[in-house]
4Fe-4S Wbl-type domain-containing protein
Amino acid sequence: MSTPADLLGALLGIPRMDAACLGQWSLFDPAESGETPAEIAYRHGAAIALCESCPALRECGEWASGLPPRDRPRGVVAGRLNDPKPRPRKKENS
């Protein structure tokens, strides 16, 4: 039987993995507005520690590495922080 997480993952192209992060998504999310740097560091540190002991770490890393950089999820993915800085837009010639 498929769970809502399975269905969402299928829609987003995320493979089904028996990962340690299941149900703990908020640890992995990018920095939220209003969070202090210490709160962000603590949360992301906990996420990275969870990844380090995860049986799906290799598979998760392969999945994330296979995505174009612009499509990679922000936050902690496969034990790494993916939080690219926004790039300034190029000015169009007038």
The chain has three helices and two strands. The mean pLDDT is 81. Strands lie at 75-77, 80-82. The longest strand covers residues 75-77.
